[in-house]
Design a protein that fits this description.
single chain; about 475 residues; mainly alpha; 2 domains; globular
Length: about 475
């Protein structure tokens, strides 16, 4: 079920009304089947995989709690890791592995090649797999006791606002909230509704409008000159940010209506002044997950240089996004950018010559420029349909530098939406408090804030039915 669908506009208010009418001890029994219904709305068989992961990790944690030390707990941790990662690899990466083997066989002319097969990727499997894995790892590390109520644990894994595309929550913050008694609070409901409407505006009015022209440019990059190709990458970067942050806003808003608090997933990444800072502001629930559960154990147990660990982490982040060499290159390009960014920061702090004001300013400007070049280059691999398509885009940029300007024609309605909707987005971004989950409330003075509310209402009433597109991160 899509957040931007008519079905969800009926589903969420109905669940919210029933939720507040029920006594606290029965609310999980409403939210759990509602979450499974939400997830199985795409394909009913998806629910079976979700239930399998839930049952394995529930019992693995229960059995771990009965053991006296980590050595005795380790087999159950391995059970959780192997079972969950096997499901993830089978459904997400087996086709990629098979295709890579087929290409190797064809290059070396081995005579016969493995048969080709396609496996349907279950929606959100990367998100809920990481969320449930963090639970068993935390139980193994002694950070939390196992959840003994199977229904509440199953709800933690499947909670519908953040099930499909995050944020990837931690059991230490989300699970206790299911035990907390939530009272009806009209202010929380209004805040959640406003945040949901703002996310809907970013998705339908801005991200989906940009997607039309991003698709045109990436489909036939050879038709456009270099400035247009640069513009295409920049437009996709904003489309990706608007689309994904819109989902996050709608997820946090939906959860807040029900009395739950989800973590912030974005902290104005467009303000980042280095690649390192960008990744501390972008998809925070994923980057912190990799830092806590991959990078820190590697740094503690493996005697590899720190930059090798960073390369491995970013390679995994790239592959987490998609099973393909293009996504691997997306991760590796960002790894190089991250390492260079750290090196420049450390060099600036270790030499007195960099204390001079004009040198500091020059380094900051270089870091900003380097950040946008690195991210733009990596996004070509992220957006293009395979390495071949990415190479065509990059080649067209260098081949078409000197041809006359060949832009794209923008429809008048799309131009109106972008020209009038963009300032509203920038206003909220400018006034948003850091780490704030209610960005609209930060708009001041009050009459300007109410102007934003009416603006949003106008857009959603008159243009809210233009598209019904899936969110980009649904494919991951």
């Amino acid at each position: 079920m899509l957040f931007n669908s008519f079905e969800y506009f009926l589903f969420l208010p109905l669940i919210a009304v029933l939720y507040y009418l029920l006594p606290h001890r029965y609310r999980w029994a409403l939210l759990l089947p509602a979450s499974y219904f939400f997830y199985m709305y795409w394909r009913p068989e998806y629910g079976l995989l979700l239930l399998i992961s839930t049952a394995i990790d529930y019992w693995a944690a229960i059995w771990m709690a009965k053991k006296p030390d980590k050595k005795a707990k380790r087999p159950y941790l391995w059970l959780s890791l192997i079972a969950n990662l096997s499901l993830l690899i089978s459904f997400k990466y087996l086709g990629f592995i098979n295709e890579s083997i087929r290409e190797i066989f064809s290059v070396f002319d081995f005579g016969s090649t493995p048969s080709q097969f396609d496996i349907l990727l279950p929606v959100g499997i990367s998100f809920y797999t990481f969320q449930t894995l963090s639970y068993t790892i935390d139980v193994y590390r002694g950070r939390r006791a196992p959840e003994k109520h199977f229904g509440i644990f199953a709800l933690y894994v499947s909670f519908f606002p953040q099930l499909v595309a995050g944020p990837i929550e931690r059991s230490t913050t989300l699970l206790p909230q299911f035990h907390r008694k939530v009272r009806f609070d009209i202010n929380r409901i209004l805040d959640g509704s406003k945040l949901f409407a703002y996310g809907l505006f970013k998705k339908i009015i801005l991200a989906d409008t940009l997607s039309i022209y991003v698709y045109q440019i990436f489909k036939n990059p050879g038709l456009y000159d270099s400035p247009t190709l640069v513009l295409g990458v920049a437009a996709f970067g904003y489309q990706l940010y608007l689309d994904f942050s819109a989902y996050t806003d709608m997820a946090i808003g939906s959860a807040r209506i029900l009395g739950f608090d989800l973590m912030s997933n974005f902290e104005r990444p467009t303000r980042a002044k280095s690649v390192r800072e960008f990744w501390s502001r972008w998809h925070i629930s994923l980057t912190t997950w990799f830092f806590d559960y991959v990078y820190k154990p590697m740094a503690k147990n493996w005697r590899w240089p720190w930059y090798v660990n960073i390369i491995i982490v970013f390679a995994l982040i790239g592959l987490w996004h998609g099973a393909g060499w293009d996504f691997l290159l997306f991760g590796l390009v960002n790894a190089v950018g991250y390492i260079v960014s750290l090196w420049i920061d450390e060099m600036s702090l270790s030499h007195r010559v960099f204390d001079r004001k004009w040198i500091k300013k020059s380094i900051q400007l270089f870091q900003i420029g380097f950040t946008y070049v690195t991210l733009g280059f990596s996004l070509v691999f992220f957006r293009a349909n395979g390495i071949g398509a990415a190479w065509q885009y990059i080649q067209a940029f260098f081949d078409n530098r000197y041809i006359p300007f060949t832009g794209i024609t923008i429809a008048s309605l799309d131009a109106f939406l972008l020209l009038t909707g963009w300032p509203l987005f920038l206003l909220v971004q400018w006034q948003k408090d850091f780490n704030s989950k209610t960005p609209l409330n930060a708009v001041k003075p009050w009459w300007l804030r109410w102007g934003v509310y009416y603006y949003l209402l106008f857009y959603l009433i008159f243009f809210g039915g233009r598209f019904l597109k899936e969110f980009i991160y649904f494919q991951f």
